[in-house]
Amino acid sequence: MSTAVTKNKRGFTYVLPEIGKKFIAEATVGHGPVLDVGAAYGVATLPALRKGLEVVAIDINKEHLESLQERVPVTHSRRLTTMEGNFPYVNFPDNHFQAIYISQVFPFLKPFEIEMAAEKIFRWLKHGGKLYVVSFTPYLRHCESYIPIYEAKKEKGEEWAGYIECLSEYSKDNPIASALPDCINHIDQDDLHRVFSPLFDIEQLFVFGDPNNHLPDWIRYDGKERVGMIAKKGI
Hints:
Blueprint: E1 4-5, E2 12-13, H1 18-26, E3 34-37, H2 45-51, E4 55-59, H3 62-71, H4 74-77, E5 80-84, E6 97-103, H5 111-124, E7 125-136, H6 147-155, E8 163-164, E9 184-185, H7 189-196, E10 201-208, E11 226-232
Parallel strand pairs: 3-4, 3-6, 4-5, 6-7
Antiparallel strand pairs: 1-2, 7-11, 8-9, 10-11
């Protein structure tokens, strides 16, 4: 599925990025379930099922999950579990998942909720399991007027410098503004390192853009639009 607006003011979905492909490629069939947080219409879930993985797909919107279930072939449906829930206010057994993928969920969480998520994810992952994160940074065209404010906050050493309490003040040229909440959390590498490094071994932490032109023009800015992280729970 190409770019599609979500039904719950959580932005849009888009083509699976390389880190999402790596989440699927590195997971091993038969080594336990994987978790797709913010699964929406199944951008990551569907190819994971095609590989033969057991997938738990969680989303805050019931319609997204219904749409996902309709698109899953009967031959794969027994390996899919869907869960309507507000992450991170959900619970799973400890040491349960071999891998967890979280794409574009953190922008819609408060800082303390990301910290809560880190602790829960650590418990949910098996020893040696991996977390894969994709999230938007502050370097986005539709709110580029906030970038100088973000950079000034970084100069002062402020944490969560990309946290915006009133997005509408900065996002003036956004064709799906109605699909975004007014409070949004555009995070960076420092935010992820600060929260996750005390718990996980961070294998990769990097910014990346849109080499294949999959992001819409109102998002694409300077090649630093997204931050990715792969982190491992120690054995």
